[in-house]
Design the sequence.
């Protein structure tokens, strides 16, 4: 049984775990997809979930590049996303409370997101949570994106964590596979993607929310 007292620390994914942005991204891709008659948009967006910009570009190009200008498509999606997020980056339920609680408890926290480092810092500053993280690894700081383990290995190394004694909080298939391959204990909190058999097998535990994580760590542990 693991409690806050006997783990090295926790590394969080960002989109879909801390920020409720994956739903925004999906909505914007569907909007642009309808505009241009793109097929199977939801399927390809799910494939991209948790991956960095390079991998996303490759997947979208393979799907639509023979008939559409991919840079134009992605620029339009980005415009839609930015217009939506002008109202503020939406936090997942319990995200602020859990991160502040862990920070105040003295738990070392990392962030390992496929989003670019500068974007992570800007968005975390905007929501007032940057101070909670002891290390941040962006998708542009590693060569291989999730589902490869590079980003989590790098995060653990920078934080001085033993991966075997570290939780990784993830929502996506690519993220769970990445954290598991890094030798960590993946905590699965599903967002848009319904977990498949492989995700459930590789996850240390599946929870319904960040608040459930806090409740369990305050009572029995995990």
Sequence:
């Amino acid at each position: 049984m693991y409690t806050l007292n006997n783990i090295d620390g926790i590394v969080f994914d960002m989109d879909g775990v801390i920020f409720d942005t994956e739903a925004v991204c999906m909505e914007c891709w569907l909007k642009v997809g309808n505009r241009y008659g793109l097929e199977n948009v939801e399927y390809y967006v799910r494939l991209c979930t948790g991956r960095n910009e390079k991998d996303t570009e490759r997947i979208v190009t393979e799907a639509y590049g023979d008939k559409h200008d991919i840079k134009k498509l992605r620029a339009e999606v980005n415009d839609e996303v930015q217009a939506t997020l002008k109202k503020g980056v939406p936090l997942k339920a319990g995200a602020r409370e859990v991160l502040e609680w862990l920070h105040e408890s003295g738990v070392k926290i990392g962030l390992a997101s496929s989003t670019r480092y500068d974007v992570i810092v800007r968005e975390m500053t905007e929501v007032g949570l940057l101070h909670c993280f002891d290390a941040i690894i962006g998708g542009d700081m590693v060569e291989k994106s999730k589902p490869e383990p590079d980003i989590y290995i790098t995060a653990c190394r920078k934080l001085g964590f033993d991966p075997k004694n570290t939780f990784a909080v993830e929502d996506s298939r690519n993220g769970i596979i990445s954290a598991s391959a890094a030798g960590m204990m993946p905590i699965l909190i599903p967002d848009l993607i319904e977990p498949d058999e492989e995700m459930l097998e590789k996850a240390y535990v599946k929870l319904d929310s960040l608040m459930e994580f806090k409740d369990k760590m305050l009572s029995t542990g995990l």
